[in-house]
Amino acid sequence: MAKSKVRWLFLFFIIALSLESFGGEIKLRDKLSGASLGSIRSIKIGRYVFIPIEEFAKALSIPTIKDLNAKKISLFYKKNKITFTAYNPFVHLNKFKFQMTTDVRFPNGDFYVPLPEMVKGFELAGINTLYFDSNRLTLYVIMRPPNIVNITTVTNGDTLELFIKTTQKFQRQNIDTIQDKEWIYININGGVIDVSQKWDHINGPAIFEFIPSQIAMNKARLALHVAPNVSLDNIKLLPDASEIVVTLVSNSIASSVVFAELLKEREKWKIDTIIIDPGHGGKDAGGSAPGRILEKNIALSIAKKLGDELRARTNAKVILTRDRDYFVPLKRRTKKANEAGGKLFISIHVDANRVKSLHGHTVYFLGPAKTDETRNVAQFENSVIKFEDSQNEYAGLSDASFILAANAQNSYNKESQELAAMINEAL
């Protein structure tokens, strides 16, 4: 009896140890373009996530030198020599020495380095190229430093010049442009731009919106939303400076009246009012689960928290279509949003399903329902009309077509799709 108990305790200890050491896959992504760079294994011991440093180096094509006798491995990363030693918390980054809070592990002759500690050491040494997202288990790497560093504008009569400051000289054949109605796209092959940088110094009434993006590892894009009468005139490279000059021209010299209208039009594109629509409410409970778990309550709670976050992080005015548990007809929701001048309308719902294994999220944006699934969703959500007192207001509208008819915002389909993609990525 005693022996059996001892065996059971020993077996429990082995299982607990193996579970504690279980890690997961760490995804590698380029921070600027978002492109996947592959993945590496990891193990977790206590509160630390360890990665095999040789596997990390191989994935990013970083040269290494390993000395198994001295139990050392050196990486030659962006002109920096970085040395790790087994069973040792000290890292040598060129002449800088950093002490991690735990040792480098050395199982079976492989060097396992604590990832968050490594990233911290890189930052202290001035190598700001790694960013670890522990929630997503993703390590973001800046493979190339940005070479597009600043953009300024100068207005002169009916012309507007953009001065794009770079850290290297580009050839004219590296730059191509596309004008699509009111959008001008400037693609710079070999260009790298830090999209996380603030680019709010782009001014001039002719430019409503400026969107920098890294569309590929080696291609940057500058997207300009311009006034209807503005077109691209020419692009030139200054011979004595690392600078690209883009000239925009209006079809006619803007009078003071036109100038004021352009400023007014530009203001329309500012996202200054956000409408949050908690689904259902009052006599319309929405989906439900055992224990009186109701969709209307969860949606309202999420909406309030989202509203608080937006007010704290932005200067936008945030309006909820309902702020407590009461029924709001669909028509009143859209009327409230339109009267407030809402630029974004975000409706929050919680899915219900009898299959308990399902989990995740869905993001819908306004557009024609092209699949049976989207048609069914529209029909189900619009069935709330049965709770309304004046259902004749919706006479002639089928359930499946109601959302499109009520909002009629297909002209912003592209922007809606982009916002949906951002929300999906964030979730």
Determine the number of helices (DSSP H or I, runs of at least 4 residues). 9
Helical content, roughly?
25-40%
The order of strands across the largest sheet is 5-6-7-8-9
Major β-sheet, in short? 5 strands, antiparallel
* Oligomeric state, counting identical vs distinct chains: single chain
Structural class: alpha+beta
Q: Strand share of the residues?
A: 25-35%
The span between the termini is 53 Å
- What is the typical, i.e. mean, pLDDT? 81
Rg from Cα: 28 Å
Shape verdict: flat
Strand runs, count: 25
Low-confidence stretches: 4-20, 404-409
Structural description of this entry:
The chain is α+β, with helices and mostly antiparallel strands and 427 residues long. Helix content is 26%, strand content 32%. The chain contains nine helices and 25 strands. The strands form seven sheets. The protein has a five-stranded antiparallel beta sheet, covered by helices on one side. The longest helix has 19 residues, at 2-20. It is flat. The two termini are 53 Å apart.
